[in-house]
Amino acid sequence: MSEKSWRDFTDETVLAWLQEPSYPSICYYTLRCLLDTPADDNEVVSARRAILTEGPGAEILARQRPDGSWLEEENAYNPLYKSSVWQLIFLAELRAEGN
Q1: 73: helix, strand or coil
Q2: DSSP H helical segments within the chain, as ranges?
Q3: In whole angstroms, what is the distance from residue 52 CA to residue 34 CA?
């Protein structure tokens, strides 16, 4: 009996859905973690760049203030999920990278 792969339990429509450009982080993770696409592949590089310009990553960056913070008054991790440290955590989870 041969060992089954995760691909035996899905079809190409699921992979196509995971690679939609509206959520570039999901596309990036799909290419790198599920499909083992090399980091220097054009699709991977394109998805990685899009994290900063489209979807949730772009929305977070659009709210950043000129001084680099996200809120006028904040204290370390507070207010919860809205302070700068949380925005940086979210960007890191999305795999956003600055140039």
Answers
A1: coil
A2: 12-18, 24-29, 42-50, 55-62, 84-93
A3: 22
Yes or no: say if 96 and 56 are a contact pair by the CB < 8 Å rule.
no
Rounded Cα gap, residues 98 and 95, in angstroms: 10
Mean pLDDT of 6-27: 87
d(C-alpha 71, C-alpha 91), whole Å:
16
DSSP assignment letter at 22: T
User: In this predicted model, what pLDDT tens digit does every residue of 37-54 receive, in sequence order?
Assistant: 999 999 999 999 999 999
**Block residue for tokens 């429509």:** 13
